[in-house]
Amino acid sequence: MRAIEPTMKVLRCGMAVAAAALVLLLASCGGGSDEPLSGPQQRAALRAPQVPDATTLMDWAEGEYGVYFPGHQDNRAFDVYVYRVYDNGNYVGVAGQDVYVWGPVSGNSAAPVRVGALADFACRVFPASCAPAVSGLRGQALYAAPLGSAGNACRDCHGDPPGNGIAAILNAAGPRDSQGEPGIIRAKINSYFLMQQFAGVSDTDLADIAAYVNAVRWGKPLQ
């Protein structure tokens, strides 16, 4: 098996070959924009995706693309590069923030092939970090929106800002250091006939409404 060190010198000189097939194979998921709400506020921005480090990225590659990177291998290091080598002759490695592959997986190219930056793989490696954040700001708009099957909004019974049915609101607000208790709202929807018109409201929307009630109850800024 060829040693990787001479090839890494080629890599440092910027002679890595582009390979469209590998980009399609290992490219990370793209981000999409959310549709704006009909109310005055828009959906809150997504949380900043969690960027994997070299070890986490290569662990993920072994699990996701085991046919190319079979079995778990230990990290090796050369200069500023961290890489792993496999019995089938394939390499995967990271130089700074750039991810490279080499060997049969790259068509036995003359030099390692760059397939993206670590940040490009964030949503693939840590999909939960790309999920929408709980947003009291969005919850404020949902609270005023006609979400009920009969065309009613939460504010129609509880006031705007929330004030009526204060005991239930206090329960849904939860502790100050929380983001509210959407499960309490769901339980009330399931058990109280006047609220059953809200049965179709998603758990994501209830979480945002609970975050809004929490912010109002404890005087916290909306986010």
Overview of the structural elements:
Helix 7 (166-173) crosses helix 9 (203-218) and helix 8 packs across helix 9 (203-218). The model is unreliable at 1-25 and 27-47 (pLDDT under 50). The protein is 35% helix and 10% strand. The chain is elongated and about 70 Å long. It has nine helices and five strands; from the N terminus they run H-H-H-E-E-E-E-E-H-H-H-H-H-H. With 223 residues, it is of the alpha+beta class. The relative contact order is 0.15. It has a five-stranded antiparallel sheet. The chain folds into two domains: 5-130, no CATH class; 136-218, Cytochrome Bc1 Complex, Chain D, domain 2 (Orthogonal Bundle). The protein starts with a helix and ends in a 5-residue tail after the last helix.
Keywords:
alpha+beta, heme, 223 residues, Cytochrome Bc1 Complex, Chain D, domain 2, five-stranded antiparallel sheet, single chain, disordered N terminus
What's the helix and strand layout?
Elements: H1 5-12, H2 20-26, H3 54-64, E1 76-78, E2 81-85, E3 91-95, E4 98-102, E5 113-117, H4 122-125, H5 136-144, H6 154-158, H7 166-173, H8 182-191, H9 203-218
Alpha-carbon Rg, integer: 25 Å
Mean pLDDT score:
79
Task: Count up the helices.
Answer: 9
Spatial order of strands in the largest sheet? 1-2-3-4-5
Low-pLDDT segments: 1-25, 27-47
Beta strands, count: 5
Q: Profile the largest sheet.
A: 5 strands, antiparallel
Termini Cα gap: 55 Å
Structural class: alpha+beta
N-to-C series of helices and strands: HHHEEEEEHHHHHH
What is the approximate shape? Answer: elongated
The helix fraction, in percent, is 25-40%
The proportion of residues in beta strands is 5-15%
Q: Count structural domains.
A: 2
